[in-house]
Protein backbone atom coordinates (compact mmCIF):
# COMPACT_ATOMS: atom_id res chain seq x y z
CA UNK A 1 0.00 0.00 0.00
CA UNK A 2 1.45 3.37 -1.02
CA UNK A 3 -0.10 6.51 0.40
CA UNK A 4 -1.11 9.11 -2.23
CA UNK A 5 -2.22 12.58 -1.26
CA UNK A 6 -5.00 14.21 -3.25
CA UNK A 7 -5.93 17.84 -3.87
CA UNK A 8 -8.33 19.58 -6.22
CA UNK A 9 -7.27 22.63 -8.23
CA UNK A 10 -9.73 25.33 -9.23
CA UNK A 11 -7.55 27.37 -11.57
CA UNK A 12 -4.85 26.39 -14.04
CA UNK A 13 -2.04 28.47 -12.54
CA UNK A 14 -2.52 26.88 -9.11
CA UNK A 15 -2.56 23.41 -10.65
CA UNK A 16 0.66 24.07 -12.56
CA UNK A 17 2.36 25.51 -9.48
CA UNK A 18 1.32 22.52 -7.37
CA UNK A 19 2.62 19.88 -9.78
CA UNK A 20 5.72 21.68 -11.04
CA UNK A 21 6.97 22.31 -7.50
CA UNK A 22 6.83 18.62 -6.56
CA UNK A 23 8.55 15.98 -8.74
CA UNK A 24 6.43 13.23 -7.15
CA UNK A 25 3.10 14.79 -8.17
CA UNK A 26 0.96 14.34 -11.28
CA UNK A 27 -2.21 15.84 -12.74
CA UNK A 28 -5.37 13.74 -12.59
CA UNK A 29 -7.97 14.34 -15.33
CA UNK A 30 -10.45 11.68 -16.52
CA UNK A 31 -8.25 8.98 -15.01
CA UNK A 32 -9.33 6.34 -17.51
CA UNK A 33 -5.74 5.20 -18.07
CA UNK A 34 -3.93 6.71 -15.11
CA UNK A 35 -5.94 4.95 -12.41
CA UNK A 36 -5.34 1.58 -14.08
CA UNK A 37 -1.60 2.23 -14.12
CA UNK A 38 -1.60 3.27 -10.47
CA UNK A 39 -3.33 0.01 -9.57
CA UNK A 40 -0.88 -1.96 -11.70
CA UNK A 41 2.06 -0.34 -9.91
CA UNK A 42 3.34 1.11 -13.18
CA UNK A 43 3.06 4.76 -12.11
CA UNK A 44 4.12 5.87 -8.63
CA UNK A 45 3.04 9.45 -7.92
CA UNK A 46 2.91 10.42 -4.26
CA UNK A 47 0.47 13.25 -4.93
CA UNK A 48 -2.39 13.73 -7.41
CA UNK A 49 -3.71 17.17 -8.34
CA UNK A 50 -7.23 16.80 -9.68
CA UNK A 51 -7.81 19.23 -12.57
CA UNK A 52 -11.33 18.17 -13.49
CA UNK A 53 -12.88 21.41 -12.23
CA UNK A 54 -10.66 23.71 -14.28
CA UNK A 55 -12.59 25.81 -16.82
CA UNK A 56 -10.99 24.11 -19.85
CA UNK A 57 -14.03 22.46 -21.39
CA UNK A 58 -15.17 24.83 -24.17
CA UNK A 59 -15.50 23.67 -27.77
CA UNK A 60 -15.72 26.54 -30.25
CA UNK A 61 -14.33 28.33 -33.27
CA UNK A 62 -11.13 30.33 -33.54
CA UNK A 63 -10.94 33.74 -35.19
CA UNK A 64 -9.75 32.16 -38.46
CA UNK A 65 -12.65 29.69 -38.51
CA UNK A 66 -10.73 26.80 -37.01
CA UNK A 67 -11.68 24.62 -34.06
CA UNK A 68 -10.60 25.10 -30.45
CA UNK A 69 -11.13 22.27 -27.99
CA UNK A 70 -10.55 22.78 -24.28
CA UNK A 71 -8.19 20.16 -22.87
CA UNK A 72 -10.81 18.94 -20.40
CA UNK A 73 -13.62 18.60 -22.94
CA UNK A 74 -14.72 14.97 -22.81
CA UNK A 75 -14.34 12.80 -25.90
CA UNK A 76 -18.12 12.32 -26.07
CA UNK A 77 -18.76 16.08 -25.97
CA UNK A 78 -16.35 16.72 -28.83
CA UNK A 79 -17.83 13.91 -30.90
CA UNK A 80 -21.33 15.35 -30.37
CA UNK A 81 -20.38 18.93 -31.29
CA UNK A 82 -22.24 20.08 -34.44
CA UNK A 83 -19.14 22.05 -35.42
CA UNK A 84 -16.98 18.93 -35.32
CA UNK A 85 -19.57 16.75 -37.04
CA UNK A 86 -20.04 19.18 -39.91
CA UNK A 87 -16.51 20.42 -40.54
CA UNK A 88 -14.26 17.65 -39.21
CA UNK A 89 -16.05 14.29 -39.61
CA UNK A 90 -12.78 12.38 -39.26
CA UNK A 91 -12.40 13.72 -35.71
CA UNK A 92 -15.90 12.57 -34.78
CA UNK A 93 -15.36 9.13 -36.28
CA UNK A 94 -11.99 8.68 -34.58
CA UNK A 95 -13.52 9.61 -31.23
CA UNK A 96 -16.50 7.30 -31.62
CA UNK A 97 -14.29 4.40 -32.70
CA UNK A 98 -11.72 5.17 -30.01
CA UNK A 99 -13.36 3.89 -26.84
CA UNK A 100 -16.55 2.59 -25.28
CA UNK A 101 -19.33 5.08 -24.51
CA UNK A 102 -18.49 4.96 -20.80
CA UNK A 103 -14.84 5.79 -21.43
CA UNK A 104 -15.73 8.56 -23.89
CA UNK A 105 -17.86 10.22 -21.22
CA UNK A 106 -14.95 10.23 -18.76
CA UNK A 107 -11.81 10.66 -20.87
CA UNK A 108 -10.57 14.17 -21.58
CA UNK A 109 -9.06 15.32 -24.86
CA UNK A 110 -5.80 16.37 -23.23
CA UNK A 111 -5.54 13.06 -21.43
CA UNK A 112 -6.19 11.21 -24.67
CA UNK A 113 -3.04 12.74 -26.19
CA UNK A 114 -0.99 11.80 -23.13
CA UNK A 115 -2.31 8.26 -22.71
CA UNK A 116 0.34 5.62 -22.13
CA UNK A 117 1.13 2.80 -24.53
CA UNK A 118 -0.72 -0.53 -24.44
CA UNK A 119 2.42 -2.65 -24.72
CA UNK A 120 1.83 -5.57 -22.29
CA UNK A 121 5.42 -5.42 -21.04
CA UNK A 122 5.03 -1.75 -20.15
CA UNK A 123 1.90 -2.54 -18.15
CA UNK A 124 3.48 -5.46 -16.31
CA UNK A 125 5.47 -3.92 -13.45
CA UNK A 126 7.49 -7.16 -13.11
CA UNK A 127 8.74 -6.98 -16.71
CA UNK A 128 11.73 -5.06 -18.00
CA UNK A 129 10.81 -2.12 -20.25
CA UNK A 130 12.91 0.80 -21.48
CA UNK A 131 9.91 3.10 -21.50
CA UNK A 132 8.92 2.42 -17.89
CA UNK A 133 12.41 1.77 -16.47
CA UNK A 134 15.05 3.28 -18.79
CA UNK A 135 17.95 0.99 -19.62
CA UNK A 136 16.28 -2.28 -18.61
CA UNK A 137 15.65 -3.51 -22.17
CA UNK A 138 12.77 -4.11 -24.55
CA UNK A 139 11.37 -7.65 -24.39
CA UNK A 140 8.90 -6.87 -27.17
CA UNK A 141 11.70 -6.86 -29.76
CA UNK A 142 12.02 -10.65 -29.48
CA UNK A 143 8.73 -11.32 -27.74
CA UNK A 144 5.04 -10.70 -28.27
CA UNK A 145 4.76 -7.86 -30.77
CA UNK A 146 1.68 -8.49 -32.90
CA UNK A 147 0.19 -5.07 -32.09
CA UNK A 148 3.45 -3.14 -32.10
CA UNK A 149 4.69 -0.49 -34.50
CA UNK A 150 6.46 -0.83 -37.84
CA UNK A 151 7.15 2.88 -38.43
CA UNK A 152 9.19 5.21 -36.23
CA UNK A 153 10.60 2.31 -34.20
CA UNK A 154 14.04 2.11 -32.60
CA UNK A 155 16.22 -0.61 -31.11
CA UNK A 156 14.96 0.55 -27.71
CA UNK A 157 11.16 0.60 -28.15
CA UNK A 158 8.56 -0.44 -30.72
CA UNK A 159 5.36 0.41 -28.84
CA UNK A 160 2.47 1.73 -30.93
CA UNK A 161 0.88 5.04 -30.04
CA UNK A 162 -2.64 4.01 -29.00
CA UNK A 163 -4.77 7.12 -29.68
CA UNK A 164 -7.27 7.27 -32.52
CA UNK A 165 -8.24 10.93 -32.37
CA UNK A 166 -4.59 11.96 -32.32
CA UNK A 167 -4.28 10.43 -35.80
CA UNK A 168 -7.04 12.67 -37.13
CA UNK A 169 -5.51 15.69 -35.39
CA UNK A 170 -2.10 14.87 -36.88
CA UNK A 171 -3.59 14.91 -40.37
CA UNK A 172 -5.10 18.34 -39.69
CA UNK A 173 -1.96 20.14 -38.40
CA UNK A 174 -3.45 20.66 -34.95
CA UNK A 175 -1.57 22.66 -32.30
CA UNK A 176 -1.34 21.89 -28.60
CA UNK A 177 -1.49 24.83 -26.19
CA UNK A 178 0.05 24.44 -22.76
CA UNK A 179 0.66 26.36 -19.55
CA UNK A 180 3.82 25.48 -17.69
CA UNK A 181 6.04 26.81 -14.94
CA UNK A 182 7.62 29.16 -17.48
CA UNK A 183 4.38 30.37 -19.07
CA UNK A 184 2.31 29.49 -22.13
CA UNK A 185 3.63 27.51 -25.08
CA UNK A 186 2.24 26.22 -28.38
CA UNK A 187 3.44 22.91 -29.80
CA UNK A 188 3.02 21.85 -33.41
CA UNK A 189 1.24 18.51 -33.31
CA UNK A 190 4.04 16.57 -34.99
CA UNK A 191 6.56 17.95 -32.48
CA UNK A 192 4.34 17.09 -29.54
CA UNK A 193 4.97 13.33 -29.96
CA UNK A 194 8.59 12.23 -29.74
CA UNK A 195 9.99 9.20 -31.54
CA UNK A 196 11.39 6.63 -29.09
CA UNK A 197 15.00 6.79 -30.33
CA UNK A 198 17.30 5.95 -27.43
CA UNK A 199 15.04 7.61 -24.83
CA UNK A 200 11.58 6.02 -25.14
CA UNK A 201 10.66 7.16 -21.64
CA UNK A 202 10.40 10.72 -23.05
CA UNK A 203 7.17 10.79 -25.03
CA UNK A 204 6.40 14.53 -25.15
CA UNK A 205 8.43 17.76 -24.97
CA UNK A 206 6.65 18.80 -21.77
CA UNK A 207 8.27 20.05 -18.61
CA UNK A 208 7.13 18.50 -15.36
CA UNK A 209 3.99 20.40 -14.38
CA UNK A 210 3.23 21.68 -17.91
CA UNK A 211 -0.51 21.39 -18.47
CA UNK A 212 -2.34 21.04 -21.79
CA UNK A 213 -4.95 23.80 -21.90
CA UNK A 214 -6.38 23.47 -25.43
CA UNK A 215 -6.06 21.85 -28.83
CA UNK A 216 -6.56 23.97 -31.93
CA UNK A 217 -7.25 22.79 -35.45
CA UNK A 218 -6.83 25.37 -38.22
CA UNK A 219 -9.65 25.97 -40.68
CA UNK A 220 -9.24 23.15 -43.20
CA UNK A 221 -11.91 23.11 -45.96
CA UNK A 222 -10.85 19.68 -47.24
CA UNK A 223 -11.63 18.22 -43.80
CA UNK A 224 -15.37 18.43 -44.55
CA UNK A 225 -14.81 15.47 -46.83
CA UNK A 226 -12.87 13.15 -44.57
CA UNK A 227 -13.03 9.83 -42.77
CA UNK A 228 -11.31 7.73 -40.15
CA UNK A 229 -10.98 4.07 -41.10
CA UNK A 230 -9.95 1.70 -38.30
CA UNK A 231 -9.04 -1.95 -38.81
CA UNK A 232 -8.95 -4.09 -35.67
CA UNK A 233 -9.46 -7.63 -34.45
CA UNK A 234 -13.02 -7.01 -33.28
CA UNK A 235 -15.59 -4.31 -33.89
CA UNK A 236 -15.57 -2.59 -30.51
CA UNK A 237 -13.38 -1.90 -27.51
CA UNK A 238 -10.20 -2.72 -29.40
CA UNK A 239 -7.12 -0.85 -30.54
CA UNK A 240 -6.24 -0.38 -34.19
CA UNK A 241 -4.03 -2.80 -36.05
CA UNK A 242 -3.97 -0.14 -38.76
CA UNK A 243 -5.96 3.03 -39.17
CA UNK A 244 -6.12 5.91 -41.61
CA UNK A 245 -7.39 9.46 -41.16
CA UNK A 246 -7.84 11.00 -44.58
CA UNK A 247 -9.36 14.11 -46.14
CA UNK A 248 -9.51 14.35 -49.90
CA UNK A 249 -10.55 16.78 -52.61
CA UNK A 250 -10.65 15.59 -56.23
CA UNK A 251 -11.14 17.94 -59.20
CA UNK A 252 -11.56 16.51 -62.71
CA UNK A 253 -10.16 13.17 -61.60
CA UNK A 254 -7.02 14.68 -60.08
CA UNK A 255 -6.14 14.95 -56.39
CA UNK A 256 -6.40 18.67 -55.56
CA UNK A 257 -5.91 18.50 -51.79
CA UNK A 258 -5.17 15.68 -49.41
CA UNK A 259 -4.41 15.02 -45.76
CA UNK A 260 -3.42 11.57 -44.51
CA UNK A 261 -2.19 10.19 -41.20
CA UNK A 262 -1.75 6.61 -40.02
CA UNK A 263 -2.50 4.98 -36.68
CA UNK A 264 -1.93 1.54 -35.20
CA UNK A 265 1.35 1.09 -37.07
CA UNK A 266 3.67 3.77 -35.71
CA UNK A 267 5.23 4.92 -32.47
CA UNK A 268 3.48 8.27 -32.82
CA UNK A 269 0.46 9.56 -34.74
CA UNK A 270 2.02 9.28 -38.19
CA UNK A 271 1.52 12.07 -40.69
CA UNK A 272 1.84 10.41 -44.09
CA UNK A 273 3.59 13.19 -45.96
CA UNK A 274 5.02 10.86 -48.61
CA UNK A 275 1.48 9.87 -49.57
CA UNK A 276 0.37 13.50 -49.73
CA UNK A 277 3.41 14.61 -51.75
CA UNK A 278 3.00 11.74 -54.21
CA UNK A 279 -0.72 12.13 -54.76
CA UNK A 280 -1.40 15.86 -54.90
CA UNK A 281 -1.70 16.59 -58.63
CA UNK A 282 -1.84 12.87 -59.51
CA UNK A 283 -4.80 10.93 -60.91
CA UNK A 284 -7.15 9.79 -58.15
CA UNK A 285 -7.27 6.06 -58.76
CA UNK A 286 -6.39 2.78 -57.11
CA UNK A 287 -2.98 2.46 -58.82
CA UNK A 288 -1.69 5.83 -57.66
CA UNK A 289 -3.13 5.28 -54.18
CA UNK A 290 -1.33 1.93 -53.95
CA UNK A 291 1.96 3.41 -55.18
CA UNK A 292 1.72 6.21 -52.64
CA UNK A 293 0.98 3.76 -49.82
CA UNK A 294 3.96 1.61 -50.81
CA UNK A 295 6.20 4.68 -50.61
CA UNK A 296 4.96 5.58 -47.13
CA UNK A 297 5.63 2.07 -45.83
CA UNK A 298 8.97 1.66 -47.60
CA UNK A 299 10.95 2.24 -44.40
CA UNK A 300 8.80 -0.04 -42.24
CA UNK A 301 10.74 -2.21 -39.78
CA UNK A 302 8.41 -5.02 -38.76
CA UNK A 303 9.06 -7.92 -36.42
CA UNK A 304 8.21 -11.50 -37.37
CA UNK A 305 4.90 -11.17 -35.51
CA UNK A 306 3.70 -7.90 -36.99
CA UNK A 307 5.00 -8.11 -40.58
CA UNK A 308 1.36 -8.38 -41.71
CA UNK A 309 0.83 -4.76 -40.67
CA UNK A 310 2.85 -3.43 -43.60
CA UNK A 311 0.47 -4.84 -46.19
CA UNK A 312 -2.54 -4.15 -43.96
CA UNK A 313 -1.58 -0.48 -43.69
CA UNK A 314 -1.12 -0.18 -47.46
CA UNK A 315 -4.53 -1.71 -48.11
CA UNK A 316 -6.18 0.45 -45.46
CA UNK A 317 -4.81 3.58 -47.13
CA UNK A 318 -6.12 2.50 -50.53
CA UNK A 319 -9.52 1.61 -49.11
CA UNK A 320 -9.84 4.91 -47.25
CA UNK A 321 -8.97 6.97 -50.32
CA UNK A 322 -11.17 4.92 -52.64
CA UNK A 323 -14.04 5.37 -50.21
CA UNK A 324 -13.58 9.13 -50.25
CA UNK A 325 -13.44 9.17 -54.07
CA UNK A 326 -16.63 7.11 -54.19
CA UNK A 327 -18.33 9.50 -51.79
CA UNK A 328 -17.29 12.41 -54.01
CA UNK A 329 -18.92 10.72 -56.98
CA UNK A 330 -22.19 10.28 -55.14
CA UNK A 331 -22.41 13.69 -53.45
CA UNK A 332 -19.77 16.26 -54.42
CA UNK A 333 -18.38 18.02 -51.34
FE1 LIG B 1 8.72 -1.16 -23.18
FE2 LIG B 1 8.52 -0.05 -25.59
FE3 LIG B 1 9.68 -2.38 -25.37
FE4 LIG B 1 7.06 -2.18 -24.91
S1 LIG B 1 8.06 -1.83 -26.86
S2 LIG B 1 8.59 -3.33 -23.72
S3 LIG B 1 6.92 -0.12 -24.05
S4 LIG B 1 10.40 -0.47 -24.45
TrEMBL record:
<dbReference type="InterPro" id="IPR016166">
    <property type="entry name" value="FAD-bd_PCMH"/>
</dbReference>
<dbReference type="InterPro" id="IPR016167">
    <property type="entry name" value="FAD-bd_PCMH_sub1"/>
</dbReference>
<dbReference type="InterPro" id="IPR005107">
    <property type="entry name" value="CO_DH_flav_C"/>
</dbReference>
<dbReference type="Pfam" id="PF03450">
    <property type="entry name" value="CO_deh_flav_C"/>
</dbReference>
<dbReference type="InterPro" id="IPR002346">
    <property type="entry name" value="Mopterin_DH_FAD-bd"/>
</dbReference>
<dbReference type="InterPro" id="IPR051312">
    <property type="entry name" value="Diverse_Substr_Oxidored"/>
</dbReference>
<dbReference type="InterPro" id="IPR016169">
    <property type="entry name" value="FAD-bd_PCMH_sub2"/>
</dbReference>
<feature type="domain" description="FAD-binding PCMH-type">
    <location>
        <begin position="1"/>
        <end position="222"/>
    </location>
</feature>
<protein>
    <submittedName>
        <fullName>Xanthine dehydrogenase family protein subunit M</fullName>
    </submittedName>
</protein>
<keyword id="KW-0560">Oxidoreductase</keyword>
<dbReference type="Pfam" id="PF00941">
    <property type="entry name" value="FAD_binding_5"/>
</dbReference>
<dbReference type="InterPro" id="IPR036683">
    <property type="entry name" value="CO_DH_flav_C_dom_sf"/>
</dbReference>
<dbReference type="InterPro" id="IPR036318">
    <property type="entry name" value="FAD-bd_PCMH-like_sf"/>
</dbReference>
Amino acid sequence: MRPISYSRATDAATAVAAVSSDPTSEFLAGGTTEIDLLRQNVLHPRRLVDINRLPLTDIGTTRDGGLRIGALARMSEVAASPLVRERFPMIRQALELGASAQLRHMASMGGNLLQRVRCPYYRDAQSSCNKRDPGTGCPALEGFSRGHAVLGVSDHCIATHPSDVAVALAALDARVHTLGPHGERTHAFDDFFLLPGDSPHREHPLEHGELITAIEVPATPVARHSLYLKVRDRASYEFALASVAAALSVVDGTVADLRVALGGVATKPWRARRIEDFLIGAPANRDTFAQAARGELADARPTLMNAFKVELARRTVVRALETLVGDTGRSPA
